[in-house]
Amino acid sequence: VQLQASGGGLVQAGGSLRLSCAASGFILSINTMAWYRQAPGKQRELVASISSGGSTNYADSVKDRFAISRDILKKMVYLQMNSLKPEDTAVYYCTIERTTYWGQGTLVTVSS
After folding, report:
1. % residues pLDDT > 70 (the chain)
2. pLDDT digits (tens, 9 = 90+) for 65-82
3. Is 87 left (phi over 0), alpha (psi -120 to 50) or beta?
4. Quick check: 64 and 48 in contact, CB under 8 A?
5. Is the pLDDT of residue 30 over 90?
6. Nearest-CA neighbor of 101 among 25, 19, 12?
């Protein structure tokens, strides 16, 4: 199983970024996929998830700003992040929920 996250970077407040997670070694469509983030000095927290049936769930702090999606054929999971805020600064990780498989993380820095 491999999860390769990419797409992080430096962006000004109010800007947008799209994170991508390339998945391999498992069947994407039958697993719940999720994005977590960890800010400096804070615990890792759930940002968004998408179930095998396509249902999505978001942390209150990102609702109406972030959108999780997947492309089963391409084996990709995405996190579209809009209206970014400095408090969104963190390392973002993709994962298969309820497993120990995690991507390597991609850093998102939002400047004020």
Report:
1. 100
2. 999 999 999 999 999 999
3. alpha
4. no
5. no
6. 25
- Read off the tokens for 37: 């983030």
- CA quadruple 91, 97, 100, 102: dihedral positive or negative? negative
Q: How many residues does the chain have?
A: 112
Whether residue 32 contacts residue 99, with contact meaning beta carbons closer than 8 Å, is answered with no
Q: Would you say the C-alpha torsion 28, 31, 32, 37 has a positive or negative sign?
A: negative
Q: For residues 101 and 92, give the distance between their C-alpha atoms in angstroms, rounded to a whole number.
A: 14
DSSP state of 100: S
Beta-bridge partner residues of 102: 95
